[in-house]
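Students often ask what a holo structure prediction actually looks like on paper. The answer is less mysterious than it sounds. You provide the chain, you provide the ligand, and the output is a string of discrete structure tokens encoding the 3D arrangement of the protein together with NAI.
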Amino acid sequence: MKVVVYSSKLYDKQALCRTLDPQWQVVYFEAALDLNTVPGAHGAEVVSVFVNDRLDEPVLQQLAAGGTKMLALRCAGFNHVDLQAAQQLGIRVARVPAYSPYAVAEHTIGLMLALNRKLYRAYNRVREGNFSLNGMLGFDMYGKTVGIIGAGKIGRLVGKMLKAFGCRVLVYDPYECSVCKQLGIEQVQLDEIWEQSDIISLHCPLTPETDHVINADTIAKMKRGVMLINTGRGALMDTEALVNGLKSKQIGYLGLDVYEKEGALFFEDHSCEIIQDDLFERLLTFHNVLITGHQAYFTEEALNHIAETTSDNIRAYLADEIMQNEVKA
Ligand code: NAI
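The corresponding structure tokens follow.
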């Protein structure tokens, strides 16, 4: 049985080699899956992909024509998969529902603290022998109000960590969160999040309802100088509205681990190229913006968990067992 693994960096390969059945014929491609690279999957019953692989109808049609019957996502989000097309083409899809909510929650807190206390600026200044504190003024996290959108595994953990700082934590989620109540986190409506929060952090999935949930209108409702953090999905935020909000100082701090057009940039070394995305380059010019390249999940524990769950998903598919992590249209 042949498995083709797309978007596989050395670290993915090392983790997968430890867990995938040695009897399977596994082919690793560093390239992402798209219409150009899809011929590489010819003859592979199982194809494994990550967050920025292309899984629209034309690519899925090519996969099906080449004999692919199962897609093993190595990520939690499946907003990039045309599930309806996959179902019609007889391709089953399974994901890794949670690899390490701790990894993402801890990175989220890292972005908040680094932005607040300007750690990324301090690193450069001190190395250059500049010990001036001008422009380094931060604020106490204690007593601040933080609004979380999405009270799932990651959002709840972020809330719990912030409670330890002495923050007031608000959460918006369309479903009741009883655990939140026990943690002393207040479940509120979205408008209360916009109006009352000093920091807003996104932890909901990308869906038609949450697409550009941060836009010019919602930014206008926020406190002046608000800190915005996105470790969810890039398209939760309208990047143009972010740039305008930063220019007008309505947004005081911006921390991103994801970006709506990250597919063309992230996970690759573009340091010797001229980056053509002007909006992204504009974001980088602000001293109060900190961007990481979709690395919130990137811990040893999470990589091992991704490899183990991917392996289990493929095994369940091959054994015709119930696939616990199957996603359907
Ligand atoms: P989860 O499925 O446990 O929680 C998502 C929560 O969002 C649920 O409570 C759900 O009810 C809520 N939700 C659904 N629709 C909503 C809406 N319209 N408004 C507000 N909340 C809504 O997911 P988990 O594990 O907490 O992950 C959250 C997101 O984090 C994922 O969807 C993914 O996009 C992102 N993620 C990012 C990673 C990174 O490396 N940056 C790694 C892993 C996940």
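The first strand starts at residue 2 and ends at 5.
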